[in-house]
Each structure stands twice: as C-alpha cells, then as structure tokens.
Amino acid sequence: MSTEARLELGPSSLTDALYESVRKRIVNGEIPQGEKLTEVRLAGEYNVARPTAKAALERLTALGLLRRTAHKTAVVPVLDQAEIRDLFFSRMTIEKAAVSALAATGEVPADAARAQVAIEYAARDRLFENQVEADIAFHTALVAAVGSRRLSRMHELIIGEVHLTMGQYQAHRKAAPTTVAEEHAAILKAIEDGNPDAAAEHLAYHLEQAQGRLLTTLQQASDEVVPQ
Amino acid sequence: MSTEARLELGPSSLTDALYESVRKRIVNGEIPQGEKLTEVRLAGEYNVARPTAKAALERLTALGLLRRTAHKTAVVPVLDQAEIRDLFFSRMTIEKAAVSALAATGEVPADAARAQVAIEYAARDRLFENQVEADIAFHTALVAAVGSRRLSRMHELIIGEVHLTMGQYQAHRKAAPTTVAEEHAAILKAIEDGNPDAAAEHLAYHLEQAQGRLLTTLQQASDEVVPQ
DNA sequence: TCGTGCATTCTTGTCTGACAATCTTAGGAC
DNA sequence: GTCCTAAGATTGTCAGACAAGAATGCACGA
C-alpha cells in the first residue's frame, strides 16, 4: 500500500487551475479574512465562465477555505478561538494516529525528512512563506506515508484551514525559527526508534505549542483592533 | 458548542434533493457495485439539467460513493479487502477519538441512545434496512455529540462508504441480530462511567467485529463468483 | 489467427446567455 | 429614529452548443 508511485502532472483542467490559484491566494493571506468572493468577480478576474468559477468556489468551500450558505456569497472565514481549538483537536486526532502508525513500522518517511531540511533552510534564511509551505508539507508527508488514502483525505480536509491561519496570523514568525524544526526532529526520532507512544507525545506537544502561538497572536490582533 | 439546535427542513435546493436521492439509492444497493452513472443518464432520470446532475455526481464523488477521473464516467466503487481495512482504520481513528472525548465528560448523547433503541427494535423485527440506518445514526450521533464540526465532517467523509459496504454486503444479516446492540451498549456504558480507555476499547472491539463480518462476507461473495 | 491502427461514438469539460428565486441594501413613510 | 418596501445584486437552475478526451468496434496487415 506504500509504493503507490504516481507521477502527478499539472492541473490540466481549467477548474483545477483556477482552484489552485485561488487557494494559494487565500492561504497566503493575499485575499484577507472576511473578504467576499462572488462568482462573477472570480469569473471576471480569471476570464472564465461563471459555472467554472462556481465549481472552484464549491471545492474551496468543501475544504473550509471559504464559507458560504445557500444564496449567499462566499467569504474567507475568520476563525475565532473556539474554531482554532476545534481545528487543532481534529488535527491532533489524525496526526497522532499517523505518527503512531509510522512509529509502529519504524520507517521515517523520506518526504517528511526532505520537508524537514527545507524548514531548516527557510528558518535560517528567514523566508517566512517557504517555512510555512515546508511545515505543511512536513505534516502532510507524515500522514501520506501511512498509506491510507482515507486518512490523507481527512487530513486534507483540515490542513487547508491550518495553512490559512498560519498564513493569516504568521504565528511562526513569533517562534524562535529553530523551535519548530527541533520539535519536528523529536517526532522523527521517535518514529525512527519505533516508539509509537513517544511519537504521539512529541506530536501532541508540537501541536499544542503551535496552537498556543496561534491563540496568542490572535489575542494580540484583537487587542490592537479593540484596545479596551 | 453543544446546543446548536437547528431544524433541518427538506433539501430546498434541487441539487441537494438529487444528491440525497442518488445517495440513498447507492447505499441501499439499489444501484449496484460497478454500475456506471453518466451525467446524461441522471439528468434524464430525474428530468434535470446536466450541470445539476454533474454537481450531484461531484458531491457523491467527494464522499467516496462514486469514483471518477477526468473525462471518465462515474462508477459505484467496488471495495476490495485492502480498501475495507483502510476504511475501518480511518473510521477507528475518528470514532475512538470521539468516544474518548465523550467518556471524558461522562455524558451519553441522547441521539445515540435513541438510535440504540431503534436498532433493538429493527433487530427484533428483522427490518434489515432500518437496522443499517440506525447503526449509522448511532455512530454518527457519537461523533456529532463531541461538538467538533471538523471531526463530524471528517467522519461524514468515510461513513458514506461504510454505509455503502453494509448495504451491499448486508453483513449485518449474518450477525446474531442482538450482537450489534450489545456491543453498542457496552460503549455507551463506558461513556456513562466516564472511562475513556474502556470506551475506546469497546469501540475498537465492535469495529473489529464489524470489519471481520464484512471481510468474511466479501470472501464468500468472491468465492461464489470464482469457485476455484 | 491475432494484433495494431484508425475512425466513429460516447462522455465529459467548458462556454454563452438567460430567467427565477433569494438575499442585501437603500430609500421612503410614519 | 424605526420599520417597511422596492430596486439591485447574487446565486440556483436551465437550455443549447462546441471542443477535447476516452472507449469501442472494425478493417487492415503481419
């Protein structure tokens, strides 16, 4: 179940390309929180038909990168404290299961190791956006390495929102650049040692730290807007 | 986060209604494994426009109730052994987290208790289809009671396939009708006792039993087709 | 006889244009 | 100032159309 080597060639579909482009703009904060995204606006910006824009919006909505209800326009969500906690609870559930399963085999996934190196470089050079990308890639690689298509799909369902919050609040900037890399290293070490409990433990600590940074940043941001 | 009491009135959207109808037909085995579902066929059967049918197909595909790749017709998937294992691994991950969280509060969700009663009735009267519905409702209620929107969405992503396999193989029929109810009762008891580990344990046992029944039935079915 | 290659046909991807239903917003009446 | 109504904006759905990719069957050659 592990050697599913498929070479992915770029999105050939117009909808795919549109979806990818908008996704990047949202997670990088280029389209800010609370911004409205109408079907006609997208269709106009990219010069595609409205149904195409509609399809892209629907896919983004499915991943939590947009919110919308019937007959209302899609907006980039603003995650409050409770939602960030919910997000990290869900994330913890999936990723704990993933690292435990990996530690049971004792194999450190190559993709995760590569992402780890990328994080170290990005941290050293203060390339914030790259660091976020690599961080997401690291966690995604861990889940993917389990070889469970459904686990990966569930992870995909929430990692978009994680990416979104990291891009918006840029909490990583607040952390000592090497902290994240060290926590990741501890997780990989536990996997290599074949210790599922330790791996889950290190992962839990890492995610709690990340969540803490995020909540702190969120608090500061709201203080700035409403200074008592 | 628990009192989100919204009354759901029938799907007002045409796409929603279509989606719901096809979903039911698939999970009940009315549309058999391997059956092809073209956009025009759906559009014709329900007398809707092709884009509407397309949207419904895409949503079903997202939930794993259909498989399709670009330019190819959607088909009702045939799950093999490996995929059923993957499905139950993913399911176990989510539901274990759910019952553990519930047991931490010690509150038995009312919806789950209701579904449990419905299962007992259905088992007594041998109403197979109701039994499956109630079983799905039981597990869904457990997850929903945690109050995590994202956990529920992830669960939704896989429970459709569970429903599908149960409808197709009708493995519940093979089980002593009361077995399922008893296993469920043990889970609820552990939650009520506020014992997270026991709850997870009972859930794991229950799901392993269910998976075992499914794999056995699958094996028998393939033996019938290819009798050595 | 069997395999290869081509053409037809089916199906999906995307577009244009349109109308109805619904939500939002602005303006007017009290 | 508040409430209600109406116009504008936005989405839901439809019809019809064309292009591109995939699948199928048939003829041809080895």
Short description:
Chain A is 71% helix and 2% strand. Chain A is an all-alpha fold and 228 residues long.
Description:
2 copies of one chain form a homodimer. In chain A, helix 2 crosses helix 3 and helix 6 (128-145) packs antiparallel against helix 7. Helix content of chain A is 71%, strand content 2%. With 228 residues, chain A is mainly alpha-helical. Residues 1-10 of chain A have low confidence and may be disordered. Chain A has a two-stranded antiparallel ribbon with strand order 1-2. The first copy, chain A, has 9 helices and 2 strands, in the order H-E-H-H-E-H-H-H-H-H-H. Chain A binds chain B through residues 1, 12-13, 51, 55, 58, 62, 64, 70, 82, 86-87, 89-90, 93-94, 97, 148-151, 153-154, 157-158, 161, and chain B through 1, 12-13, 51, 55, 58, 62, 64, 70, 82, 86-87, 89-90, 93-94, 97, 148-151, 153-154, 157-158, 161.
Oligomer category: homodimer
**Strands of the largest sheet of chain A, in order across it?**
1-2
Low-confidence stretches of chain A: 1-10
* DSSP strand content of chain A: under 5%
Total number of strands of chain A: 2
**Helix- and strand-based class of chain A?**
mainly alpha
Which chains make the largest contact? A-B, 26 and 26 residues
Q: What composes the largest sheet of chain A?
A: 2 strands, antiparallel
Instruction: Please give the count of helices of chain A.
Output: 9
Mean pLDDT of chain A: 88
